[in-house]
C-alpha cells in the first residue's frame, strides 16, 4: 500500500492554514487488497489474505497498524528484528502481532514496513521497519491481540485468516 499526501487549502486564498490529506493507493493492482477491517462487538478485526505465510504475516501487521492509525505517524526511522516460535501458525501470528503491539506500547515504535523473511515449522523471522514516534498518535488503542476464532487456512490462492483485537 502506498500513501500519497496532498495539500488541501482551507479556502481559495489559503495562506498556509490548510492541512495534509492522505490518499491510499492499493499497490496490488487489480487484485483484492490483502486485508480489510472487520466489525465485531466491542472489538476490531482484520481479514487477511496472502500468497505465502510470509505475505500473510506481513499483511496482518499492516492491517493491525491501520486499525491503530490510518496514516503512519512521523518519527525517527528504526529497524527491529523479531524472531519467534510457537506450536502452530495460529499461535505464531497472534504472538507476532502481540510483539508489534509491545514495540508500539513500550518502545513507542510504529511498524510501517514489516518484512517477514521466514515462517516455517513454527518459527518466524522478520525485519521490521518503522518509526520511533515523537508523540502519542493512536487513533484506536488496541489492548490485546486475541485467539478468538483464530485459524490460518490454506486457500487456492495461498492463505487467509481473521484476527480480532480487544479495544
Structure description:
This protein is an alpha+beta fold. The chain has one domain (29-166): Archease, Possible Chaperone, Chain: A, domain 1 (3-Layer(bab) Sandwich). 21% of the residues lie in helices and 46% in strands. The chain is built from two helices and ten strands; from the N terminus they run E-E-E-E-H-E-H-E-E-E-E-E. The strands form three sheets. Strands 3, 4, 8, 9 and 10 form a five-stranded antiparallel beta sheet that branches. The protein has a three-stranded antiparallel beta sheet with strand order 5-7-6. A two-stranded antiparallel ribbon has the order 1-2. The two termini are 24 Å apart. The relative contact order is 0.21. Mean pLDDT is 80; it is low at 1-31.
CATH level-4 homologous superfamily: Archease domain
Regions with little confidence, pLDDT below 50 for 5+ residues: 1-31
Number of discrete helical segments:
2
Q: What is the CATH architecture term?
A: 3-Layer(bab) Sandwich
Helix content: 10-25%
Instruction: Tally the beta strands.
Output: 10
List the secondary-structure elements in sequence, H or E.
EEEEHEHEEEEE
Rg, Cα atoms, Å: 17 Å
Strand content: over 45%
Our count of domains comes out at 1
Main sheet summary: 5 strands, antiparallel
Shape: globular
CATH topology: Archease, Possible Chaperone, Chain: A, domain 1
Q: How far apart, in Å, are the first and last alpha carbons?
A: 24 Å
CATH class: Alpha Beta
- Structural class based on helices, strands and sheet pairing: alpha+beta
Amino acid at each position: 500500500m502506498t500513501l500519497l499526501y496532498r495539500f488541501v487549502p482551507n479556502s481559495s486564498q489559503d495562506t498556509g492554514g490548510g492541512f495534509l490529506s492522505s490518499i491510499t493507493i492499493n499497490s496490488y493492482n487489480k487484485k483484492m487488497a490483502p486485508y480489510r477491517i472487520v466489525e465485531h462487538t466491542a472489538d476490531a478485526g482484520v481479514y487477511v489474505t496472502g500468497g505465502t505465510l510470509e505475505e500473510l504475516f506481513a499483511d496482518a501487521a499492516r492491517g493491525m497498524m491501520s486499525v491503530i492509525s490510518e496514516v503512519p505517524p512521523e518519527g525517527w526511522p528504526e529497524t527491529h528484528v523479531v524472531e519467534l516460535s510457537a506450536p502452530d501458525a495460529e499461535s505464531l501470528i497472534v504472538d507476532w502481532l502481540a510483539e508489534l503491539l509491545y514495540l508500539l506500547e513500550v518502545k513507542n515504535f510504529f511498524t510501517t514496513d514489516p518484512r517477514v523473511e521466514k515462517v516455517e515449522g513454527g518459527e518466524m523471522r522478520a525485519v521490521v521497519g518503522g518509526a520511533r514516534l515523537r508523540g502519542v498518535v493512536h487513533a484506536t488503542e488496541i489492548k490485546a491481540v486475541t485467539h478468538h476464532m483464530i485459524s490460518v487456512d490454506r486457500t487456492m490462492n495461498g492463505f487467509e485468516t481473521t484476527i480480532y483485537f480487544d479495544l
